[in-house]
């Protein structure tokens, strides 16, 4: 996950993979062609025409497709295909296309007031400087700005993005193509999903970002990608650009050990226990079952992912390898200038990390008491908001600023559909029992004050709280949301009183956490300098952990041997769609697709080697959450596919990239072209992208001149 | 699944696969080398030394291993390794090694008295002639005889087998090797199981079969197989001999359609409904849950297999293909002599088959009312036994002869552990509801007489029957088993009265069934003659459906592409054991195995291509239930492995052999040799088989002269 600016430094490796361009041309993410790669906030996308046409994953556009569905025309089922620009529909007021146009190192500015401080003060100084830089940058309308931290406090960058707010849905295949296989196939190569959708970015007549208006005009991007019309095969060069969210690959050996030996196993155990508690509490109560279905699905997903990550990190010997790397760095360090100071910081960071271990059980349980409840979390949010509203907006805690209030209101409303008192009590009973089992010095006095110190008290407290609180009533929650802070604080609702007590603990724990975060922000750069310096001494470059900034990965189309005697080919074909088709979602391929497959109506998008139409392909590119929709490009920078998933064996890649197992899953641009040429035809878009209309390998004869 | 006698006729195809011997040498199953292949009754095995050493699957010897386990020495866990012959232990009084020494066509004798008859009379005449031939053959002590039917009534053969009754356990690896992966990996290539065990056959000092005695001596077989010391690779010739139980590949297109369109889907639906009924009835009742655990496992297994068979037959377009073959045969038929008579029989057979469709729902439900209950089935068995005991043994219904009484007693005893009244009532309530939904002309009057014609009557009848019957008491069941027939018939126990009424229906349905079976036995040979004749006209030979007689299959070591983009290599390695190892059964590889793998202590059994120790391999050989333990041989007839499983995609092969999907799974003889050389050493057995003692590719230096 290289920063574009690092690409010239790894030119040799890129050429070795087969890259045919000049890495310098890719090194500025704010200029063409990299500026064709945009963020949707959570997903990646790219411009593919000079008229602001954007391609991303179907699953990234799911909300927009749902929003435009009506009982008469369910776009999820039917797909969407705007015949002309006038038929394009709004992706919703929250939809964004973010085009990066500035990426500036501002380390000195951010750290100027932090230097000499420690702990919480260091943290607060960095936060204040960051907020100030963002505010200054956002003073110019139409931009969203952020400060990002590279190498854990080593470097800070200011990023400015043009914030396009009029985003329209242009083309989406039916869900049965766009998410064929859905949750069942998720993470499971071989996949057969046509996970692509087209948007168009619109701006005001003045060319500046504007809210949706019929008067708006298509945005004219400085750069757009060309779609390849050439075949793909195993071994071909591939690269990918996008906005990966978060990785942990530069954590210390102690943190790796904590992850493998405690975090993941305890998460597996706790999620299993909570699932069992919810299942017991909803048994025989169909209504409660429906209310908790989403939470159960989320618990199962967390459990499955934790187990997958644990299995993967063990399989890759991640802890032992990091210990070896760290030991090698520490052995090399004394030969360097400033070695003693660096070593002192590294050792101090290790102590801070070790200190968190003493309260990790407590912190985990206290977090889950809020994350896994509806009413208690709501009460605590109301109390916290009442506290934060007493401050200037810029000084409020992140998550409780003015911009966050709509989200809090939505959550308080949603609780109405996702709450049943018996189930929330069962969840809390399970967590409280575990809290009571902690050593005395880890237990939270405020939890004991509210729920008592033994099982009988906890049961009585839960009974009393949930049988008398008025918060189960949506109107009451919204009333408190609208009420003045003193009125909220004065509420005598028993759950509001409990939340007020627990908030004291939350603030104290948060303060401890921020102090630790500040210390690590101050001390970790020494570790990073050691690791980077040692790597450089061995001729290796080091990229920073992912942080939602634009990154580039290069590699090849590559098969996967996940287990003894099992081999996965890197290209799937439409034959696999037919094999998986059962007629029942998520394996209900639509008739036009099955018919076109049966006719073998592939035209020029047919794979010459396989003699059939491909669907998805597999590369060894480096991805994580946030890379959904990332353009995959060939050696000449042409679009050959969209990233949309990764394989199960790669779940642990957020901590460790293991080349034997890490693959990324892409929808083949040829499948997209075939769907648009032969299955759900969109000749106007093929034409706009300069692609053959009928799948034949030639430019379109006709043109509609739009 | 060729009869050995057919092999000279397919010499060209065998040579094409790579066979290097003379097929004529394999054509007599009662002479060497085919007589080295023996039946254990349900499993296949083979002699591998002149001293009666027999090799078969670990899972075929599971009962013998369990029988010899003690609290102090659990042979299932520890394995078994007799240092000398004196240490070999009895596999139990029921263990058998059956050596075929006669295989004689007796069609004329069997059909002599059937000719001119129809329906039930034809059936009874064939049965009487078969029983007489068996009785005559078994007059000579030490033999077990049977009459088998080839091509559905076309040909009958008398088979005589030497019945060796002193079978001893010689060597078994621990269960964690012998059934590594167990139920989870069952049917799931890639597998990693060391599924082998050694027996030795003993006879009396006079060389004749005898019950276990310390005075017995090792049997000296006329033939034994040599174990190969050469490597294996994809594409190598392989052949396999064994006793496959039953296939249905020569059924008519109408029967294929019935299987795919009704039998399997209805089985899936019914098994799911019964599972749900049992689960509802055992919910919250741990004791009932334990009592029905085996029945639930069996229902699930039946359900899974039915679904797998259904998926496979659909995937292979089995119905359409058989329709095409049948149409081609019927189009060719008029050019043949006797065409009109053959066609008349074929059409008459089709009518008989069609007639069964009218009552298939009824027959299925009535069958399940016995198969899925404990007490009701017991009551019906007691009534039926009372009826049959009034006849000479030879005339009794199969299953109710003197030889069957011990089995019936065991079942009546076992009910004590497998019965809970609420669950049996729930099962019957489910089946009765379905019976009531049948059209009036399909409903069984006796069922209505016992359980009434509506839901309320059924509930009342079940309540009355199960709250008052004394049959829940094991002593009462055994008292009735021992009682004289008139006393049984006079029993006033309400469940015995119900069984007496239902027995009238059972006898009537049985009579209909036998009449249909007799007609089909008379008429099907015309269909077979048509299909065989048409195949011959196209140069194809046809083997009879499997019927537990010795068959040979030839082919190659072959990979499998079960789904789009998925490829399975044909050889697995010990690395896969390590990958699957979790420490929890069935993936708890024992320490000596893991240590030997870690040491890469492979010696001469290492695969030269893979550079590691192989475990299992995959061929395209034709197998079905009964082929467990079958020797797999190379082009020169040397033992290269033992068959023990097949792949999931091959579940439908009992109806249709589809070369894309049908594979057989074998334990590699090199893995067996390695386990015996380096992991749980048995140099005495390697020596007895003429194999290198230390895995080195040379004859043993020392010899113990046994």
Automatic annotation (TrEMBL), chains A, B:
Its EC number is 3.4.14.-. Pfam families: Peptidase_S46. Residues 296-323 form a coiled coil. One of its GO terms (molecular function) is serine-type aminopeptidase activity. It comes from the Bacteria. Keywords: Aminopeptidase, Coiled coil, Hydrolase, Protease, Serine protease, Signal. GO terms for biological process: peptide catabolic process; proteolysis. Transmembrane segments: none annotated. The keyword Aminoacyl-tRNA synthetase does not apply. InterPro entries: Pep_S46, Peptidase_S1_PA, Peptidase_S1_PA_chymotrypsin. Belongs to the peptidase S46 family. Catalyzes the removal of dipeptides from the N-terminus of oligopeptides. PANTHER family: PERIPLASMIC PEPTIDASE SUBFAMILY S1B (PTHR38469). This is Dipeptidyl-peptidase.
